[in-house]
Amino acid sequence: MVQIPNTSASAPPAQRSVPTSADVARLAGVSRATVSYVLNNTSAVRISEPTRRRVHEAAEELGYVPHAAARSLRAGHSRMVLMPAPAIPVGPLHGQFLNELQWALSRLDYTVVQHGALGLHGDDAARAWAELRPVAVLVPGQGLGPQGVAVLKRSGARAVVTLGPTGVEGAHALLMDHATVGREAARHLHARGRRRIGVVVPEESGLEAYSTPRLDGVRQALRGTDAVVTELPLGYTEEAAARLAARWRGLGLDAVFAYNDEYAMLLMRALQDEGVRIPEDTAVIGADDLMLGRLLRPRLSTVHIELPSGRELAELVDRAVRDPGAAPERHEVLGATVVHRDSS
Amino acid sequence: MVQIPNTSASAPPAQRSVPTSADVARLAGVSRATVSYVLNNTSAVRISEPTRRRVHEAAEELGYVPHAAARSLRAGHSRMVLMPAPAIPVGPLHGQFLNELQWALSRLDYTVVQHGALGLHGDDAARAWAELRPVAVLVPGQGLGPQGVAVLKRSGARAVVTLGPTGVEGAHALLMDHATVGREAARHLHARGRRRIGVVVPEESGLEAYSTPRLDGVRQALRGTDAVVTELPLGYTEEAAARLAARWRGLGLDAVFAYNDEYAMLLMRALQDEGVRIPEDTAVIGADDLMLGRLLRPRLSTVHIELPSGRELAELVDRAVRDPGAAPERHEVLGATVVHRDSS
């Protein structure tokens, strides 16, 4: 770990005066109301071009910027869309989706802030978010209850949208059912003639929200067939993968759905090092369609996951903000398609 | 792309009344000041336990949460630490650092918000951040100028900390000089007897902030030696890697520093498919020390990058907030060590 030495001197805090709109008004020789109209681009009031210019110049000279909090107090709400920052590392797919969403919302004149809510859960988290008086809240994952939705709405949020496996009363829901990922993987393996199917369940905490429905999806797809499902807990280390591979022949499996491509790559390498032939002895399939899966030999089969576009989600948020009385919308938004390569 | 249908009805917006502290005061039978003292945990004023309980119960019943904006207006500043959200996808290393940092700051009673500043640059971005009146701002990457720092400070930010290759006047700087990554890679390859060294420069936009100093570091380390450096632009696709590999023998290189592990894995596979032996014909080294690099054969050599701990950075922020008059601190915080495996 790189150390940061503590070199702080104990000087008294510097006195700085934060410029206010009153200072701008004084310098520009106009009223505070005029400053507010000009800097907030209010179209309802006509103000001459020279006056506008004078206000902008005075604001520039003083280094004044409007106070979003004051503006939101006056307006009763903000243009802030709040998203809890994900507590677990997000993959490249999700990262791209977030970027796209932020871009689309900023085009609609919303400011997106991600709230670091580590250590807060459920309705406590909702209260912390409500303190910022966002106009809309996008909640990934699970954990927010109907109470939390009510707290957010009472504090002025016009739209609450959840992105996760299940919806919550009072909120719009973009349903992302990861069971469909497991179902598609299992159908593919079954169609390829495999019957003794292992399912990797990561031991790393925080992944249950994905791993549990993926495993459930495998079970659903194989219900009523002659296939048997075996749960395989696995930590994301070479050592853990080697231990699992060492007892592989005893497990009698002819296929494995390895949770995602990273676990699949890890396990496939360990199996190959044990002399297990892929796909002849064991078929392997991952999920996420990472580029790196194509670089292994055999090339890794995978489940490609589709998310809605950030633009569409931004439009849903904007609709909901404009029409807070509308009935909550619910949409299934997770698509899953098998990409068959050489490992299965 | 999964489609979200537009099912919005055109119902009029529902009228909802947002409960205020005045409502809480009325229900609890106390003054608004008392409500404020109780809910903000002000220790300066003594309030009896039964009164506290009455206020909390009334707040609960009404679903009232304090307004962070109002509180920050009264206090003149907030406990909000603002971080611009990175515009490019962050790797797992950086993601873990962010999580750790958010956790450490929340332990010190700060609220961390990430501001999506896509499309805003430099001092314009600083103005947008200043509108939220954060008490501290952490700015990754480059782009913020001394003007922007001044805007933030005038709007009440007590600490501005940059994380990037260079510092900015008036701000604390955690210097992350990626040249050191290139230097270490080049020294390693030179010590292994390699003299005709290629350096991959990703064609994807947004990565220049890392790729330029890494290339510069290679040149610095090899200056005054008999080694020759060749710049290799490369897009992150199998096709681009195959094209580069097809003309590899004509380039006459005996080593390549491939920007990071992902580009290294991509290029190494393409070179192997062309019959180039790794490391006999060409040594390959990446950077980031990804787990997946250990799964390839030969195992990928890499540069392991060390960041400061989130806890230490949180403590620097807290020191700076408590002592805004102190001279800006500057710390070199990027460590780089070669992990020698089989590809070099």
Automatic annotation (TrEMBL), chains A, B:
One of the record's GO molecular function terms: DNA binding
Region of interest (Disordered), residue spans: 1-22
PANTHER family per record: LACI-RELATED TRANSCRIPTIONAL REPRESSOR, LACTOSE OPERON REPRESSOR
Organism listed in the record: Streptomyces cinereospinus
Protein name: LacI family DNA-binding transcriptional regulator
SUPFAM superfamilies listed in its UniProt record: lambda repressor-like DNA-binding domains (SSF47413), Periplasmic binding protein-like I (SSF53822)
UniProt KW keywords: DNA-binding, Transcription, Transcription regulation
Source taxonomy: Bacteria, Bacillati, Actinomycetota, Actinomycetes, Kitasatosporales
Domain HTH lacI-type: 19-75
InterPro entries for the chain: HTH_LacI (IPR000843), LacI/GalR-like_sensor (IPR046335), Lambda_DNA-bd_dom_sf (IPR010982), Peripla_BP_I (IPR028082)
Feature: compositional bias, Polar residues: 1-10
